[in-house]
Amino acid sequence: MMTDDEGDSRPRRSYGRRKGKRLSPRKARLMEELLPQLRLDLNHPAPPDLRSLFPMSPREVWLEIGFGSGEHLLWQAEHHSDIGFIGCEPFINGVATLLGGIKDRGLKTVRSHDGDAREVLAWLPQGSIDRAFVLFPDPWPKKRQMKRRLITPETVAAVARVLVPGAELRFASDDVDYVEQAMDIIEDSGAFKAARLPTRPADWPETRYERKALSEGRKPVYLSWQRF
């Protein structure tokens, strides 16, 4: 796993705690029984065609990095039954909530990784993802914390590697400094064509993080890039 030890050459951990309050019996059971069925096996090479990860043959495969409690991922899966989804989230309680939503909706098109998304980015084949989402990542607002932000030149390069030409990368944040930094890093990568969105598109559902930002007087910014 990632570490923050000084001198370690591996990237710093971009997320905080791994687990919150104790899981309910149902969620604990889902973690034990359902997650192993949906978890990516990073100990073996990824299949050349990611569509083979799913019981049906999806038209495309989309990736969400840091899905929180899975609200956005579940909405997208419900509204795009012909798409396969890979979701990455290190926070165990969020993973358990996603599993509950998958179970309740009978979804067969979602695969998950309960750990650092950068492990999945390294595992995925080049040009295998048709759309990627990074929505409201932890802004790490304090100056001493900023080095832990997910959006770095290295992560952007990893995302660019796995996206097919023409694929869309969506990003959202309510932290102005993080938005500006992300724009600079992604556009400086030379791998993307930018398009700032004036409002949240209809196919971009609201999440609890967005509602919290709005309730506290912070205005989210929605950004979209297209892979060259």
What characteristics describe this protein?
228 residues, alpha/beta, Rossmann fold, 7-stranded mixed sheet
Structure commentary:
Helix 1 (25-33) crosses helix 4 (92-105) and helix 3 packs parallel to helix 4. The chain has eight helices and seven strands. The relative contact order is 0.15. It has a single domain, classed as Rossmann fold. By secondary structure, it is an alpha/beta fold. It starts with 24 loop residues before the first helix and ends with a strand. Residues 1-9 have low confidence and may be disordered. It has a seven-stranded mixed beta sheet.
Question: Superfamily at the CATH H level?
Answer: Vaccinia Virus protein VP39
Please state roughly what percent of the residues sit in beta strands, choosing from under 5%, 5-15%, 15-25%, 25-35%, 35-45% or over 45%: 15-25%
Q: Distance N terminus to C terminus? A: 32 Å
Content-based structural category: alpha/beta
Major sheet description: 7 strands, mixed
**CATH architectural category:** 3-Layer(aba) Sandwich
Number of strands: 7
Q: What name does the CATH topology carry? A: Rossmann fold
Number of domains: 1
Strand order of the largest sheet: 3-2-1-4-5-7-6
Give me the strand/helix succession.
Answer: HHEHEHEHEHEHEHE
The count of helical stretches stands at: 8
Average pLDDT for all residues = 91
Radius of gyration from the alpha-carbon trace, in angstroms? 17 Å
